[in-house]
Amino acid sequence: MSFEETTSPESALVVLTAGGFLKRVGLEEFEAQKRGGKGVVGGKPGEEDAISCITPAASGDRVLFFTNLGMCHSLDVEEVPAMRRYARGRKVASFLKLAQGEEVAFMLAHGGPFEQQPLVVVSKKGIIKRTPLSSFKKPRAGGTLAMSLSEGDNVCGAYVSTGAQETLIFTAAGKVVRFDEGSVRVMGKAAQGVRGVRLSGSDVTVGVCPASEGLNVLTVSEKGFGKLTPQTEFRKTARGAGGVTGAKLNEKTGMLAFAGTLRAAEVLLCSANGKFIRFHSSDVRETGRTAVGVRLMRLEEDDRVAFGVVVPAR
Predict the structure, then answer these.
(1) For 264, which of 1, 34, 38, 280 is 20 to 30 Å away at the CA?
(2) So where are the chain's domains?
(3) Spatial CB neighbours of 106, under 8 Å, sequence gap ≥ 6
(4) How many C-alpha atoms does 192 have within 13 Å on its Cβ side?
(5) Chain segment 141-197, per-residue pLDDT in tens
(6) Are 274 and 60 in contact (CB under 8 A)?
(7) Is residue 313 scored above 80 in pLDDT?
């Protein structure tokens, strides 16, 4: 059986590994389970095959690839090779013109028009930037500069905003900062951005997402524990603050690996060793922001949650 059998681009996942292998997998290949299971194999364990990034996508979407050089490349989702979940994929460098030493750090699928609405990008060192999405409307062979990064920094999250939302930034130590997105002015492509969260010690940013009324915050730790918390529990602060505790982390849970906002939706988590689990958010009980939560994914001793996505209803 060929690993390149075509799957429908509707309700698909675009998957990238640490070795730079890219594929598109139909969401139906990951059967929904109850939270707390071991999941199913979505790749082969190994350093090059460790999952580094995934994004949900649908027919007509364009996938934005943000790199360690702060560049943004893009592909129509149909250009990403459709494969089975256990296939390795094809080298991303076969599709994108990457410079020497350039690697994809984050992916985001966008299905709407590329108009003046802001693209919000955040780096591991807590820098946030808003740039008009229209700046990325016409793909360039070598990519378009999305964010000027300082040495040792990298893009770790992005979303397309309505332009009038609040922003939540999450750190590996479980801190969460919530502020008005409008406190970050819209900047040109060459700008570095401004401080979004004040980090302590060796802490790093692990993600960013928009906030709006009625949403819950999902936090997931490296060892597969997670919880839902009402967004209202995260008090608003000024941009650049240290934030509040968003999850109680310890040796049993590991550091924070993924966070997102949702109402009722499906969640898909993947481990570094290529295991995937898909469950509904209603399986996760709502608790306070300082709780440990419940087990969402059962992992082997040498494995960890590498990435997660909230799968929106299409």
Answers:
(1) 38
(2) 57-77+100-311
(3) 53, 65, 66, 155, 156, 157, 158
(4) 10
(5) 889 999 999 999 999 999 998 877 899 999 999 999 999 999 999 998 888 999 999
(6) no
(7) no
pLDDT at 306 over 80: yes
Question: How distant, in Å, are the alpha carbons of 12, 227, 274 from that of 49?
Answer: 19, 28, 8
d(CA 72, CA 64): 6
DSSP 182-208: GGS-B--TT---EE-S---TT--EEEE
At residue 312, does pLDDT exceed 80?
no
* Burial classification of residue 252, based on how many CB atoms lie within 10 Å of its CB (0-12 exposed, 13-18 middle, 19 or more buried): exposed
Task: Match domain 57-77+100-311 to its CATH number in 2.120.10.90, 3.40.50.2000, 1.10.8.60, 2.40.50.140.
Answer: 2.120.10.90
Which residues are CB-neighbours of 291 under 8 A, at least 6 positions away?
227, 229, 247, 248
